[in-house]
Amino acid sequence: MKFSRIKRTLAHHFLPAGEHLEGEADVESSSVARIALVNATVYALVVVLLLFIAATADVLLMLFGGILLAILFHKIAHWIHAGTRINERLALAGAILLPLLALGLGAWAIAPDIGDQIGKLSERLPRAAERLREQLMQYELVARVWESTNQLRALAPDDSDTAQYVANFFSSTLGVFGNLLFALVVGLFLSLQPALYIKGLLLLVPSARQERARQVLCATGTMLGNWLLAKLASMALVGVLTTAGLMLLGIDLALILGLIAALLSFIPNFGPILSVIPAALIALVEGPERALYVLVLYAAVQAVETYGLTPFLQQKLADMPPALLLTMQVLFGVVAGIAGVVFATPLTVAAMVMIRMWYVEDILHKRPAGAGEGAH
């Protein structure tokens, strides 16, 4: 549908007056050539756009992260304004400063413990992994596979050294902090002047469709805000339950392991699996039974989060088929790596809102159940 509109627009400039895109019996060969040129131009523009997105995927994802932060700030500001009736500007300032202040105070309060536990975790994980390897090597099949792997590794050129490892570590760490800083700055600018950027986007839309585009943007922002608040509450619950459970089991480094579980729970499907690995390895040092208890604990926390809290918090959100979410995570992971997997869920939420409103409602003229939710 959009391709045909683009083709008609280009044809308006390329084709002389009176000639049409539709093939007619009296169309001259020159007109056919121009139509082919229009088609080729449209497809070339699409290819260039896709290549541009693939080449700048990391930057675009960090930009999307900034948009999520701006939505979060405005959601908090709305709550402050509704509860206190203070000026909207002051409410927005409070919405920006309060989370940053809370993070700063939290980091100051637990930084010594977290720093100490991070150091211990980095020391114990290699020992735990070695303990696991020794236990697995007792099985003949595992021993053969391990030996074959070592032989292949010996044939490969060893071009790694300590200096290169340290350089890669610091470059990747600085890259992560740089991306986070970029997303934060973008979020601050967007939250301070949202109307300016929305108006700029609407200028790219034909005048007759600008009001509908505004509705779609508002509905998408509302849905993302609801999803983000629900996800943050879910992450907090996972962190608290995991930390408390590990403490009850007597597992060392419960605080840092709970924090890891909370952060990784932002990523559906893969996050919970990744979070259990360090905890299980640490528990394995104390015995297989302890590792089994940890696995049961993480499974129980995941069950509470998946079947208890998430459905309650996301009542106003559109149902997201698990197969669709997993597929989107894999696709975005292939295109943009870890960042793609992290942002796959909110991107899917936004895409579902836009497809529902622009395609299902406007083109197919259907209105799904609950379509009005989140549009205000």
Short note summarizing the structure:
With 376 residues, the protein is an all-alpha fold.
Principal-axis shape equals: globular
Order of helices and strands: HHHHHHHHHHHHH
Let me know the number of strands: 0
Number of helices: 13
The helicity comes to over 70%
Secondary-structure-based class equals mainly alpha
Strand content: under 5%
Using only C-alpha atoms, the radius of gyration works out to: 26 Å
Q: What do you see in this structure?
A:
The model is unreliable at 13-19, 154-171 and 372-376 (pLDDT under 50). The chain is globular and about 75 Å long. The relative contact order is 0.08. Helix 3 (57-84) packs across helix 6. Helix content is 81%, strand content 0%. It starts with a helix and ends in a 15-residue tail after the last helix. By secondary structure, it is mostly helical. It is built from 13 helices and no strands. Among the domains are: 1-20 and 29-46, no CATH class; 114-151 and 208-361, no CATH class.
